[in-house]
Amino acid sequence: MTLVLRDVVKEFGGKRVLDGVGLEVGRGDFLCIVGASGSGKSTLLGMIAGLEPITGGTIELDGHPVSGPGPERGLVFQSGALFPFLTVAENVGFGLRLLPLPAAERRRRVDWYLSEVGLLPLANALPKELSGGQRQRVAIARALACEPSVLLLDEPFGALDVQTKEDMQVFLHQVWQDTGATVLMVTHDVEEAVLLGRRVIVLTSDPGRVAAELPVPLADHRQLGLKRTPEFLALRNQVEDLVRGHAQSRV
Fold first, then answer.
1. Interval 116-168: pLDDT, tens
2. Residues 165 and 104 occupy one common structural domain
3. Which segments constitute the ABC transporter domain (predicted)?
């Protein structure tokens, strides 16, 4: 699986929001995109998801142009966007109804992914009975159940409290290791990007361009204690300086 963006441009009402963005995501990668307000992070993810048309350039998945939404791209929003009238299991299995799968395979996937995110005992609960972190786990399980080529995450933990957010970061990293998923994540949290990503892309602001691409040469097994190490702190500071510097360039 390869996701390739070449010279991607996005304009709204004649104003250029993204200008010549290029990047490549390979199978099993975990790429995080950071940038200040106005860098077009979420807009870029929306175009990759097929929810926003591009103004110029190309977006291709396995050599095929992205022209609209599709099951090969799973998307998770900050809010989770669960269906309140469906149970946890029904939410996870919702997208599977659109795939040509036997009923037994749909049930197997729902049970497996609910088990993976630790929510199988709550399969019959409604979203209103869950905590914020649990709802995001359901949203991630729903996206993964269709076994997409790439999982797109739009600031998925931005609305959570600090402790729940950290728990979810460890959870997401473990799910990525367990499933071998390819992940492209947008976040405003530099520390989160460095903790989770194999690579970090920094976007400039107004318009958004790729300012830097930094590898994250840390152990694949990431735990919260890693954030206290000199290597982590140095990389976090480097990314923060890049984001801040390009945000200041707008003043």
1. 999 999 999 999 999 999 999 999 999 999 999 999 999 999 888 999 999 99
2. no
3. 3-230
